[in-house]
Amino acid sequence: MGNPQKIAFVASRVSVAQTARDRLAKRFEHVEPEDADLIVALGGDGFMLETLHEVQKLGKPVYGMNRGTVGFLMNEYSESDLLERLDEAEEEVINPLFMLATDKDGQTHEALAINEVSLLRAGPQAAKLRITVDGRLRLEELICDGCLLATPAGSTAYNYSAHGPILPIGSDVLALTAVAAFRPRRWRGALLPMNAQVRFDVLDPGKRPVMADADSSSIPDVLSVEVRSDPTIKHRILFDPGHGLEERLLREQFS
């Protein structure tokens, strides 16, 4: 893509990221994201997700450098060869999930999730969920601590911690994964087509309240949640050659 002429540097609130941003901004003539050819994000995976959401309407690629505790979506931090690395970087394009949640007051809430949409119990008792896929009832009652729908890009995050599968980036599949399922005890989830539309209905919400979470956007006391992939939104992420999402997903399965 050629050496970019204009770079925007953004950083998480931790001091090591802020210090790196100040140093890089002076060295490479920082501009605002609206005027940049690309954006360099300094932090961990959480900050990378935050940055992707914030700049989604700009359509600019984002190159992350790890200044946090987790860096699955980030490249290694280095200052001296930054322009060369940006010039050689490979682009991955991912689509987020769209969530439409209805709460106990009948209010609807929309949010986008790059990693996953999760429903989690919000009280001392397990949640009871009914799951419908493409208008067809698939699970009458799931008693669990929660359930989530994860993208391939997010399959190594919360999904993997809940014993869900790691999905190849080009698989066009979503992972539906239970969190501590009690009934059906042996149910471990399902693989769904990328274009599937999934609906969760909360059973007995007064006694068993449930919250919905789309990345970091949380909605308390939901009654129903509808989730689908949104192919009209494209997040562009840059990786060093040989260290893209496909390679990282494969490597994670052998670690």
UniProtKB/TrEMBL annotation:
Its cofactor is a divalent metal cation. The keyword Transferase applies. GO terms for molecular function: ATP binding; metal ion binding; NAD binding; NAD+ kinase activity. The keyword Transcription does not apply. It is an enzyme of class 2 (transferase). Its main location: cytoplasm. NAD(+) binds at residues 45-46, 115-116, 145, 153, 156-161, 180. GO terms for biological process: NAD+ metabolic process; NADP+ biosynthetic process. Its EC number is 2.7.1.23. InterPro entries: ATP-NAD_kinase_N, ATP-NAD_kinase_PpnK-typ_C, NAD/diacylglycerol_kinase_sf, NADK. It catalyses: NAD(+) + ATP = ADP + NADP(+) + H(+). It is found in: Cytoplasm. Gene3D superfamilies: Probable inorganic polyphosphate/atp-NAD kinase, domain 1, Probable inorganic polyphosphate/atp-NAD kinase, domain 2. The active site is at 45 (proton acceptor). Transmembrane segments: none annotated. Keywords: ATP-binding, Cytoplasm, Kinase, NAD, NADP, Nucleotide-binding, Transferase. PANTHER family: NAD KINASE (PTHR20275). Involved in the regulation of the intracellular balance of NAD and NADP, and is a key enzyme in the biosynthesis of NADP. Catalyzes specifically the phosphorylation on 2'-hydroxyl of the adenosine moiety of NAD to yield NADP. This is NAD kinase.
